[in-house]
Amino acid sequence: MKNKWLAILLLLLLFGGFFAEERPPSEGAKEEEGGEHGFAQIFLFIALLLIIAKISSLITKIGQPAVLGELLAGLILGNLVLLGIDVFEPMKSNEIMLFLAELGVVILLFQIGLESNIREMKKVGPNAFIVAILGVVAPFVLGTYVVGPALMPGLSFNAYLFIGAALTATSVGITARVFRDLGKLQTKEAQTILGAAVIDDVLGLIILAVVSAIATSGTVSETEVLIIILKAVLFLGGSIAVGQKFAPYFNNFFSRIHTGIGMKFTVAIFLCLIFAYLAQLIGLAPIVGAFAIGLILDPVHFKFFKNPIIIEDIRAKLRKDKKMRDEIEPVLAKHADKHVEDLIEPLSHFVVPLFFVITGMNVDLSALMDINILILALVISLVAIIGKALAGLGASKECNKLLVGFGMVPRGEVGLIFASIGRTLGVLNVAQFSVIVIMVIITTLISPPILSALLNREK
Predict the structure, then answer these.
(1) Helix crossing, 172-181 with 430-458: angle to 10°?
(2) Of 162, 252, 316, 423, which shows the fewest CB atoms inside 10 Å?
(3) First to last CA, the chain
(4) 446 and 313, same structural domain?
(5) Residue pair 270/253 in contact by the 8 Å Cβ criterion
(6) 60/204 same-domain check
(7) What are the angstrom distances between the C-alpha of 149 and each of 53, 155, 161, 208?
(8) 90: buried, middle or exposed (CB in 10 Å: 19+, 13-18, 0-12)?
(9) Of 76, 93, 110, which one is at a domain's C-terminal end?
(10) What pLDDT score does 1 carry?
(11) Are residues 36 and 123 in the same domain?
(12) Are residues 189 and 149 part of one domain?
């Protein structure tokens, strides 16, 4: 069976290589992405990445979450160039692929919000705040004032600031996917991590804005910091308050146009993308907006739309059998309430795996070839893991503190953004940038198996 899957994967890779070599896009097609050859090749690569992502889910047979397989698949595909195979290189910077990847993480966080319960989130709010504070302060202090100066003496203070800032990042998409794959999103640990991750994102934004301002102008005003904090708090608080009040009226208006499933799906996606845009508009990550509106939307907000046909058909058949109807109705109600989540699921199956595969593809393993950088990166990675694991101490007594701490460990694309800005500003050189990239790789790849092991041990 395993040999058959390996043969299929090899065939797909050869298939992709054949088309990439035999039918290369012309220079005009490269410049005009709307060209026939340009689009055809992108269709081919989307197909290949999707099927490879699904094949990588074989990793679930050894007890690991599917997201780890997708990250590893991307890691392998993105580094085939080290073996002289550059088939997938164009996809790393292709705007359409990067857009689909970004849409993937936005849809994922929207789903996470839909499946989360705002009342439960409020219950863990104070603990989530403490977890977020610890998860930002501990790594930042360790990176800026302890490990940076000790391991990399002679650098500018701005460089140490960026190293510390990069250690504060948390990629909630990876952790949330692990909890979702294992059906543990409703646990207190998951709710604490999700709440902490939103606060973490706001704190990370503030730190990044402050360090960038210091790096460019040498100083930053208290007013600028205060404005960033106010924007973030007002957006999150305003989204929840306004969304809960006006979502029923908004959905009722569109249900008067049409009550069908198509309208129901469109309204949900519209709200997701609008809130992602608004979050980006004020300087927050789009995923924060998508998560916020997902958290707001309750099944009751879609009560004006039709239920799935199968549910109505079953109810019609059970009208004359009261006893059976009373037994089956709770199950039907549960599936009716989850209908919006079910509608989003097919879109999620399309774009979410692309996000994780492309995230893996953009990790360059060539930095591992310098032994000095590798050793330095391993030490920094250990500090990064310890710094976030300490955040678990802020979790409530009912929570598994180790699980919460490790849930904050993966840096993912967020850590890469911090490192890229430091490089763009000229604060970090190639070696320091490579150290942060390796730290991001390690924390991203070790988190899913550790979280999976901790969750399975609890189960």
Answers:
(1) 20
(2) 316
(3) 29
(4) yes
(5) no
(6) no
(7) 41, 8, 11, 20
(8) middle
(9) 93
(10) 52
(11) no
(12) yes
Assign 96 to helix, strand or coil.
helix
**Can you state the angle between helices 261-281 and 286-296, rounded to 10 degrees?**
140
List Cα–Cα distances, 94 to 69, 276, 334, 365, in angstroms: 23, 22, 41, 20
Spell out the residues 6+ positions from residue 37 whose beta carbon is closer than 8 angstroms to its own.
23, 25, 26, 29
* Rounded-to-integer distance, Cα 73 and Cα 79, Å: 10
Angle at 451 between CA 450 and CA 452, to 5 degrees: 90
Q: Decide: 108 and 176 in contact? Cβ < 8 Å.
A: yes
Computed on alpha carbons and rounded to an integer, the radius of gyration of the chain in Å comes to: 23
Host domain of residue 17: 2-93
d(CA 40, CA 30): 12
Q: Burial-class residue 458 by CB neighbours within 10 Å (0-12, 13-18, 19+).
A: exposed
CATH of the domain at 195: 1.20.1530.20
Number of domains in the chain: 2
Phi and psi at residue 428, in whole multiples of 5°? -110, 135
Same domain? For 84 and 126 the reply is no
Q: Which helix (H) or strand (E) holds 192?
A: helix 188-217
Instruction: Give me the numbers of helices (H) and strands (E) for the chain, helices first please.
Output: 22, 0
Cα dihedral sign, 157-158-160-165? positive
Amino acid at the residue 318 = L
Do both 151 and 22 map to the same domain?
Answer: no
Ranges of the chain whose pLDDT falls below 70: 1-37, 63, 65, 117-121, 124, 201, 205, 209, 212, 216-222, 225, 298-306, 308-312, 326, 329, 331-339, 367-368, 412-414, 416-417, 420, 458-459
- Do 201 and 243 have their domain in common? yes
Domain stops at, among 48, 71, 93? 93
Domain check: are 224 and 265 in the same one?
yes
| Whole-angstrom distance, CA of residue 31 vs CA of residue 26 | 9
DSSP 415-459: HHHHHHHHHHTTSS-HHHHHHHHHHHHHHHHHHHHHHHHHHHHH-
For the entire predicted model, the pTM comes to 0.68
Looking up tokens 């958290």, which residue turns up?
295
| Pair 157, 165: CB distance under 8 Å | no
Q: Give whole-number Cα distances, 307 to 2, 343, 386, in Å.
A: 42, 11, 48
